[in-house]
Design a protein that fits this description.
Elements lengths: L14 H7 L2 H4 L3 H17 L5 H20 L11 H13 L12 H37 L4 E6 L2 E7 H26 L1 E2 L15 H7 L4 E2 L3 H6 L2 H27 L7 E2 L18 H24 L14 H24 L1 E2 L1 H9 L5 H10 L4 H18 L8 H7 L7 H4 L2 H6 L9 H17 L2
Parallel strand pairs: 3-4
Antiparallel strand pairs: 1-2, 5-6
Helix pairs in contact: 3-4, 3-8, 4-5, 6-7, 6-12, 6-19, 7-10, 7-19, 10-11, 10-12, 11-12, 14-15
């Protein structure tokens, strides 16, 4: 295919150079955005009298035909093309003749690709936002189901204090809400049209950038033409948002891997989201959770890749910036796949409350409540802490727990102990006494669910 940029050179390049330079194999996914942007550009050129209305209509009709044929499969993308922009313009010129050559007036591939990428990211961000909302709703539903199920809360992976499974699950719902907020913020910052910046310096034509931006759904335009073509902050922001989201998914995945093991057996994953072993028939492997955990590093790599690509580039456009798309597209595809499979895995996951309760009954996770009991009787906390610690040590030696240590033994440590100590160390009471806002009591979990739903509704 003849090079549209032939002129300064004869347009003849080595096959190996063509292949190395070409981006159509991956940027072709932006064909719809490229055509949408070109239609808006043709309308603007006609409105400003730069091309005639007749030429604009011929160009728009031609572009609409190309879009229809691409979507139906009647027009295959020529992988010999340099990029999707050149492919569309070449096909347009083949179909409508010299009129098609007028489309590229008052723009450059530099601002064209910047526009296409933003249009594409706007669409993908909306789709990912929907997937995050679906995940949050699945998490909330599971939290409602197990709002009163007691399990050990951990610090340092050591049993620490009793909490409800619903409270634990909602932790991730809150994380995912922040992910949604970050994605929304990034989308708003990106929502600025670069088209009309041209190669780097603007154009001598009297264009109407605001009108073109309005046609494309942008509320404003970039205020500096150099920045308009060289800015990739939005790509980095989205990759950063995706990386943080994947970190949250990975932490959740790690816990699901632990919970579903025989050592914990707090949850049972659906057969639909597990695999078996080729040699060990007893195995039920949490492969989906492990893959999400593993793919997190892949998305981190996409972010680092683009950061390193951009770190030493002078203004304005450089061919290095072609390297923005593959990591971005890879991260988008990975995040969408992970969100979908994780939501299904979570929605079908079943908790085993009796195992959670059994684990909570060991490990003396109500020791803090025992100390608080003595504080309530007037003892300073540090003294109460030491007495509780000594009791735990002695219980371990005697092979008993706080709930069944005889009252006479309690009184050997302090005369402040009375029969009501057993009420204080009861696990259900320990949980439901956590009445401070954001705490683990069932009442608080119910309030938290309402709050998360309300915040989610505001983000729609």
């Amino acid at each position: 295919m003849a090079k549209l940029w032939a002129g300064r050179t004869d347009g003849t390049t080595a096959k190996i150079a063509d292949d190395f330079n070409s981006s159509v194999s991956f940027d072709s996914r932006m064909y719809k955005e490229d055509i949408t942007g070109s239609i808006a550009h043709a309308r603007m050129l006609a409105r400003c009298g730069i091309i005639s209305e007749k030429d604009a209509e011929e160009i728009i009709t031609g572009l609409e035909g190309i879009l229809k044929d691409l979507e139906s499969g009647a027009l295959p993308i020529d992988l010999e093309s340099e990029d999707i922009h050149m492919f569309v313009e070449s096909v347009l010129t083949e179909r409508i003749g010299d009129t098609g050559k007028k489309l590229h007036t008052a723009r450059s591939r530099n601002d064209q690709v910047a526009l296409d990428l933003k249009l594409y990211l706007k669409k993908e961000a909306d789709e990912i936002a929907v997937l995050i909302k679906e995940l949050i709703l699945a998490d909330i539903k599971k939290a409602e189901e197990y709002k009163a199920a007691i399990l050990p809360g951990y610090t340092h992976l050591q049993r620490a204090q009793p909490i409800t499974f619903g409270h634990h699950l909602l932790t991730y719902a809150v994380m995912f809400l922040r992910d949604l907020g970050r994605l929304t913020d990034a989308s708003e910052r990106m929502n600025v049209s670069p088209i009309g910046s041209c190669a780097l310096a603007g154009t001598t034509y009297s264009t109407d950038r605001d009108y073109e931006a309005e046609l494309l759904g942008f509320p404003e335009i970039t205020i500096n033409s150099l920045d308009g073509v060289s800015d990739r902050d939005h790509a980095l922001e989205f990759l950063s948002c995706f990386s943080i989201l994947m970190m949250h998914l990975s932490r959740f995945s790690e816990e699901i891997v632990l919970w579903s093991s025989w050592e914990f057996k707090f949850v049972e994953l659906s057969d639909a989201y597990t695999t078996g072993s080729s040699i060990m028939p007893q195995k039920k492997n949490p492969d989906m959770a492990e893959l999400v955990r593993g793919k997190t590093g892949r998305v981190y790599g996409d972010l680092i890749s683009l950061l390193v690509t951009l770190k030493g580039l002078p203004l304005a456009y450089n061919k290095d910036m072609q390297e923005d798309k593959e990591p971005l597209f890879d991260a988008i595809d990975t995040v969408k796949a992970c969100l979908q499979v994780f939501t299904g895995m979570l929605a079908t996951m079943k908790a085993i409350p009796e195992n959670m309760r059994k684990a909570a009954s060991g490990g003396f996770i109500n020791a803090t409540d025992l100390a608080d009991y003595l504080v309530g009787k007037g003892l300073p906390f540090r003294d109460a802490y030491k007495i509780s610690g000594r009791i735990v040590t002695d219980c371990i030696e005697k092979g008993c727990v706080l709930e069944n240590l005889p009252l006479k033994d309690y009184k050997e440590y302090s005369p402040l102990f009375e029969e009501d100590v057993y009420e204080a160390v009861d696990l259900d009471n320990c949980v439901n006494k956590r009445i401070s806002s954001g705490g683990t009591s069932v009442q608080n979990v119910e309030k938290e669910i309402i709050t998360i739903k309300q915040r989610l509704e505001k983000l729609k």
